[in-house]
Amino acid sequence: LGGSVVVPQSAMAADLDKVKANIKEHMGSGDYQESDTVKIDAPIIAENGAMVPVKITVDHPMDTDNYIQSIGVFVDNNPTPFAGVYAMGPANGKAYVSARLKIGKTSQVRAVAMTNTGKLIGTSKEVKVTIGGCGG
Amino acid sequence: GASSLGYASNRAGLESLLRFKPEGKLTLMHIADCHAQLLPIYFREPSVNIGIGGAKGHPPHLVGHDFLNYFGFESGGIEAYAYTMLDYIKLAHELGPVGGFAHLATLVKAIRQERGADNCILLDSGDTWQGSYSAMMTKGADMIEACNLLGVEGMTPHWEFTYGAEQVKANIAKLNFPFLAHNVVDSEWEEKVFEPYHIYEKAGTKVAVIGQAFPYTPIANPRRMFPKWSMGIQEQGVQEQVNAAREEGAQVVVLLSHNGMDVDLKLASRVTGIDVILGGHTHDAIPKPSQVKNAEGTTLVCNSGSNGKYLSRMDLDVADGRLKGWNYRLIPVVSNLIPADAEMAALIERVRQPYLQEINTVVGKTDSLLYRRGNFNGTYDDLICQALNSQLESEVSLSPGFRWGASLLPGQDITMDSIYTQTAITYPNTYRRQMSGEQIKTILEDVADNLFNPDPYRQQGGDMVRVGGLRYRIKLGETIGKRLHDIEIGGKKMEAAKAYWVSGWASMGEVDGPPIWDVVRKHVEDKKVISIEPDTTTMGVTES
Amino acid sequence: MADVGKAKIKMPSSVNAGDVVSVKAMVRHPMETGNRKDKKTGEKIPAHYIEDVTAVFNGTQVFAAKWGAAVSQDPFLEFYLKVDKPGDLTLTWKDNKGGVFTKSASVKVK
Ligand SMILES: [Mn+2]
Ligand SMILES: [Mn+2]
């Protein structure tokens, strides 16, 4: 057990309207189709909420006429969910981005990818922020 | 010492412990979580080990008679003594202490003699360098000497990390064997810090051993001690290592794990190509491997207990590059039945010698059985919590739910050696601070969710934080924020907005109160004789 | 914070034509959200964060990022690059206070 001075709040329902507005602002529309071709590799439990590694891969071709043109990343429970949008294309050979995010409290991390035809696909994954401190 | 109670060493006893139907040519030997216990000790297994969701009623979530019935052991025998808490005091007097590296060494040598050293691999799942005064003072050097002499051939870490990154690197340089951990990366460029796997040529077979360090070390222990190392279960990473090892020609693939058994079981069902998982961390002593099916085959999951109590032996028959057969036994190290290996005994005496004056100091006596294991407060935890509340003048005390720490029988002296087996860590300082009722509940809920989450990948091992001055009801099947109920402090309903004085130790942040062993020592010296009733902190444990 | 804007790039220096390689980059930067308070003075720490990142390979933009304040201190970025020809990759980070930081790396084709 930690007994740390900073006590993170337990998981709370996110303001989904705000999340949706953020997605719309950066991706053109607040709605996306859930797809298992979008993969989020993030820790189930964050080691350090100030620096959470998040890797996003889209299993999608990166050909000249069929590619992923951008990936947006959103953290539902952050005061501002928008965490970044990445522009890419055939020159990358692989629809992938890795970054490190501040996640203040347990939250869904959302990745939304746009194809070159403007279609939005995405998925989400929960990252838990904990006090920690026990062990076997 | 080994000669204090009950049985003397005898040939028939030793032969019964070594009895084994050999299989194939290759033998794996495995130890886990010895927590630096070089000498024989007493160690009472838990009376409560609750499995959540699908884990309920399956190994490792069986205790007492349920455990004996499941594995077909009789009451009152060596197995009942080793694996359960049944008739613990009576059997402890009859059969004596368990473990000790000199006794373990005799078993290891006998198996190497029987099978041929070139056909054996001895592996250690870690939590080896921490848990005693001499290990703490030498920063693990005493254990490294003992493991080198025992002939350990590979290890993976957890508590080892709490000596700090630089010390870990210096210690690795002194090992005669690989320190394996595929799932530790530097947090800057995300590159591997340690050797991910090692290929052994034994019994004419290529055996790959992949190291899986405790994935949640930076959460369960202070990250500031190894700030640039990042970990995690990294299931996909395990699969990549298995594939790489197979590509390199491995005919047998072993995952040497410090995941904890529930995590091992889930991982075995999802990663393909692992023949055997030899695991530790949750200190589960399981006499038969769990056979876990996955998309391409079956993985045998073995967990070998803790505190030097057991040695796993697994014989493997490998033909045409595939596993054809196996046999397994988790051998209880009942010290009085095993002659001490003279060379190891001499080493142990030498490494402990500089610290004898400190560790042999008697500070009091116990009238009660003192132990720690169990999902909720053990009696040794109660002693620690009472010491915190009385010495630091707090209303509530919190003590971590560690699973290590030797037991004491009623009538035994409380020595500093005993107190250190319960407290010897590199962040022992205590704290005393005010917390609101709401903050206290948040901490309890947070810990409960890291233990009782239905998803094994979200469980960190260990047990519920131990509490003094506080009682609660817990509903295990609920979600975070909803498990703890009817919390009482000092016999009165806890108030969310009220500030309470809280003490504790093993803080994730830096604190500067006296080390916990001094606090416990003063309390025992004041009390002279310790008497503790078993768990009075949980008023009820239910699913919903 | 010392060294603001000091950047590093990690990528293979020599590849086969057509290889898809990992590019990792890092820049020293506080990435202040503007929501934090100074513990001593109690005053708000002004927002100071990188808003735009671009990666240009042989004169053509191959990757870009637009960041919010949720990106961690000393931001890290990894993406892939398909290398057909040798050349120079230049990353440019721009922050909300007008700070512009660049770093380049060259890659050869075997
Ligand atoms: Mn352990
Ligand atoms: Mn452990």
From TrEMBL, chain C:
Which part of the chain is the Sulphur oxidation protein SoxZ domain? Answer: 10-105
Write one Pfam family the protein is assigned to: SoxZ
Checking InterPro entries in the record gives: Ig-like_fold (IPR013783), Ig_E-set (IPR014756), SoxZ (IPR030995), SoxZ_dom (IPR014880)
Q: Which Gene3D superfamilies match?
A: Immunoglobulins
Leader peptide range in chain numbering: none
In terms of superkingdom, the source organism counts as Bacteria
Protein name per Swiss-Prot or TrEMBL: Sulfur compound chelating protein SoxZ
Question: Which species is this UniProt entry from?
Answer: Magnetococcus marinus (strain ATCC BAA-1437 / JCM 17883 / MC-1)
